């Protein structure tokens, strides 16, 4: 008897939708999981097609033939499903030809046994046909290997389901929607199959598994078309985490609450000097004795550690961060080793160079100044000797500024000693009047005495005032200082009536570097620029009225206590 029309439509729908989804997935290659999903849906469509033909067949021989052909689809489904789940969720490291071949061993044996069942009856003990309503259905009792295959299939199904459940719990919304759709597509056939083979509903005469492929096809189609299954894949994010840990240049050691090493990347093993596998399970103190030095290091801080032999010393900034679970309980720590050897050596060389340069420059210029004095006493041209003295003092001053610049650069903004802004302004102005008595220096406004700022404000003001006074050829040179505080900013302005700061000097500061064609005349403005940045402030220049320059420093109010 032919199939009832409603059942025929359902079976045709499952077959057609499965084929369409297989084609859509195939076109998405080489996206992770695309090939596996295409094979999976093709297998489901194959199973549905031949089950439909089995139900429609009139003789036992025809029904057995179509039943055997269905096994090509059913044994492929389980392997394709777990491969798809592994690839799509970013665990494709396990998807290797050898592993796939191992997964296919039991399905391959099953196919051989299906087609040789008459010799051993490991798949079916007996078969027959039975009239159920308008249909003639195949009846069968199953042999031991059938249950082996069923168990194996359910294990693979569970593995894939668990991977998607994990994705559902730990991924963004878009990936959760994908996971729900795919889980629905996967679970529906397995539930139908469990009902059939377990005879949970004895009145169900046909296998609902191929019928449930209609649900699988619709859910998979929705995942591809509506939820961008392959366009917004979670695999890159999953793989990126592995890549960051394994491939990053910094060494990473993960320890549990007992100090046992539970994970370590390649760089970390290289730093310790032993293979990664041999380090797992060992106490961190035994492989990294310097761990005790990190006892006072907290999150976002680091300790400089020196490792290696005398001839191969490396310097590392080691940070320690606590690992906490969802209940904010500390369950371990992560140690991160950043190799700063080259930076450490560069800083050493720079320190030596600066120290030698400043020391020798000061000493040699003192000698030059002394020679100039002796030449002047011997009757040499006073103008020439005076210029010689001035230049020697300028070079000594440049060395002092270089030292100040180094101190500013090396200063940790969080630990800046605080000084009174008003007191600094008054003392700096007083010193300027002593050095440049011809300059009229005026303080317009001062902040309250309790307003303080990092110590680098002092060399900043010294250099601004010096620059305003020294390079002012006006007949009546003036320098005006004002400082105010509001809810957000401390603002300090230094105005002069000189020729103004050349545009190329300001351009150099804005560019952040000097070239042979564009450079400043000294270190003063660089010192001011770097000091203001150390205070998280900003520096601006504008023209004074009617002439001259106004230099304004603004420091965030939060930096002023």
What order do the helices and strands come in, and which of them pair?
Elements: H1 5-27, H2 34-56, H3 60-88, H4 97-103, H5 105-115, H6 117-120, E1 124-132, E2 135-142, H7 144-169, H8 173-197, H9 208-225, H10 235-247, E3 251-256, E4 261-264, H11 266-272, H12 276-279, H13 284-287, E5 302-309, E6 312-324, E7 330-339, H14 341-377, H15 382-409, E8 418-420, H16 421-435, E9 440-445, E10 452-454, H17 457-470, E11 478-485, E12 489-496, H18 503-511, H19 524-534, E13 538-543, E14 549-556
Parallel strand pairs: 9-11
Antiparallel strand pairs: 1-2, 3-4, 3-7, 5-6, 6-7, 8-10, 11-12, 12-14, 13-14
The number of helical elements comes to 19
**DSSP summary, beta strand count:** 14
Strand content: 15-25%
Largest sheet: 5 strands, antiparallel
User: How many whole angstroms does the radius of gyration measure?
Assistant: 41 Å
CATH class group of the largest domain: Mainly Alpha
- Name of the CATH architecture of the largest domain: Up-down Bundle
Global morphology: elongated
The secondary-structure class comes to: alpha+beta
Domains (count): 4
Q: Please tell me the overall pLDDT.
A: 75
Question: Your description of this structure?
Answer:
The protein is an alpha+beta fold and about 550 residues long. It folds into four domains: about 5-235, Rhopdopsin 7-helix transmembrane proteins (Up-down Bundle); about 250-340, PAS domain (Beta-Lactamase); about 345-410; about 410-560, 2-Layer Sandwich (Heat Shock Protein 90), CATH 3.30.565. It has 19 helices and 14 strands. The strands form four sheets. Strands 4-3-7-6-5 form a five-stranded antiparallel β-sheet. The protein has a five-stranded mixed β-sheet with strand order 9-11-12-14-13, covered by helices on one side. Helix 17 runs antiparallel to helix 19. The chain starts with a helix and ends in a 5-residue tail after the last strand. About 30% of the residues are buried.
